[in-house]
Design a protein that fits this description.
Strand order of the largest sheet: 3-6-5-4-7
Oligomer: single chain
Order of helices and strands: HHEEEEEEHE
Number of domains: 3
Shape: rod-shaped
Structural class: alpha+beta
Largest sheet: 5 strands, antiparallel
């Protein structure tokens, strides 16, 4: 008599052996899952303190409203300028990838420009479609003058922030209506 028929006969006469085998298998599976959960909890405890920060839900283009979700990350993993409170109508200052931790430079607003930069209103005709926070090259009289950052736009002009070292040249070129803006990639 082969082994399989003997086992079937043994289990038919003693069904408690079958149920004992099922209970042992279930117990081993439960121990494996509980052990994995305990290891994950232990690793999480070793991370240290966590902080709720904001992460982009989808890809964002510069000038679009920010759609983000709050997540908890270990403090040791976070950049120093990670956004911990998202303004109600936040706008992206630059392109942001989905899942990227938002930092202060990602949000447009008053803090987009360095504090010492000056803002000039440049006529918008002939300028590419620009959004707040985009970086531009400023040209005047056929030559490159400096880099700037778009601070805002209206139907008639583009507000461009420039370094104070470029301000004199920028105002002279604006006086003769010779300023051209080019979007940086």
């Amino acid at each position: 008599m082969s082994l399989l028929p003997r086992v079937r006969l043994l289990l038919a006469r003693r069904p408690w052996l079958y149920w004992l085998f099922v209970a042992v298998c279930a117990g081993l599976a439960w121990l494996g899952v509980a052990g994995a959960q305990a290891r994950v909890a232990h690793q999480r405890d070793q991370w240290g303190a966590t902080r709720r920060i904001w992460v982009a839900e989808a890809d964002l283009a510069a000038g679009t409203p920010v759609h983000a979700v709050g997540r908890d990350y270990p403090v040791a993993m976070l950049p120093g300028s990670a956004v911990t409170s998202l303004p109600a109508n936040a706008v992206a200052a630059r392109p942001v990838a989905a899942g990227e931790v938002l930092v202060a430079a990602d949000l447009a607003g008053e803090s987009t420009l360095p504090a010492h930069w000056l803002v000039f209103a440049v006529p918008g005709d002939g300028a590419p479609r620009l959004l707040p926070g985009e970086h531009v090259e400023v040209f005047g009289s056929g030559q490159r003058w400096c880099e700037g950052i778009v601070a805002g736009t209206t139907d008639s002009h583009v507000e461009v922030g420039v370094d104070p070292g470029c301000a004199t040249s920028m105002s002279a070129q604006l006086a003769v209506a010779a300023v051209t803006l080019a979007r940086l990639p």
